[in-house]
Amino acid sequence: MFEKLLGKEYARKKALAKAPAGPLADFLAAGRMDRSADCREIPIMAIDLETTGLDPKKDVILSIGMVEVNNWGVNLGTAWHRIVRVDQAIPGETAVIHHITDDQSAAGEPIEALLPEVLRRMAGKPMLVHYSPIEQNFIDAACRKIYGAPFVTPIIDTLEIAQRVYERRNHLIQPGDLRLFNLRPRYNLPQYKAHNALSDALATAELFLAVADNLYPSGKCPLGEFLSKR
Description:
Elements lengths: L1 H5 L1 H11 L4 H7 L14 E8 L9 E10 L2 E11 L8 H7 L3 H5 L4 H12 L4 E3 L2 H16 L7 E3 H11 L11 H4 L13 H19 L15
Parallel strand pairs: 1-4, 4-5
Antiparallel strand pairs: 1-2, 2-3
Helix pairs in contact: 2-3, 3-6
C-alpha cells in the first residue's frame, strides 16, 4: 500500500536496485516516463498474452503478441507473435478458446528465451493493454521467477479508459460492454478473430487510437491522462 501511494517511479527505482544486470535491469533503466508527453509523439507498445487461466501462480502464458504504435498509427512492421512452450498439458477447454494445442506449444520457445525480447521491445515505452491485470501479473510473475525482481511499467489500459468515458457521460455499464470486441464497433472499427495474441494486440492498439482521437481530436494528447490508476 505504501509503495502504491509513492507511485510507479518509486517502484521502478526499487525494482531496478534489485534486478541483476541483464534484460530486466535494462528495461527498468529505460522506464522513466514523462506524464506530460504527447501520445501522438511517443512510441507505445501494445501487447496481449493468451494464458491457460487468470492466476499466474498456477496458470501459464501460451502466446505473446506485440505491435508498436508510433507516429499516431499502428506500425505493422513491428508485429511480433510467439507461441510459448509450456511444461504441462494444455487443458482442452483452453485449447478450444485459444486454438493452441500441445503439439503447437511443444514447437514453441520457453518463456525464459522469449522474455528478453519482450522486455527489449517494451523498453522506454508505455505498455498498452486491454485489462491490465493479465499482462502485468503474468509478466511480473515471469520476471520474479527468472530475474528475481518485479516488472514495473507505465500502463495504458483501454478497458479503464472506456470505463472512465462511460462514467463521465453517465452511461450505465452493462455486462460485457467493456470487452474489447464490444467496444470496437462503437468507434467503427472492424472485428477480428478473438483470442489470438497478435490480433488482440492490434485490436487494442486501434481502439486506443480511436478513443484518444475522440477525446482529444486536436492539440496535445497528454500521456498522463491515459495512464492506468492500478
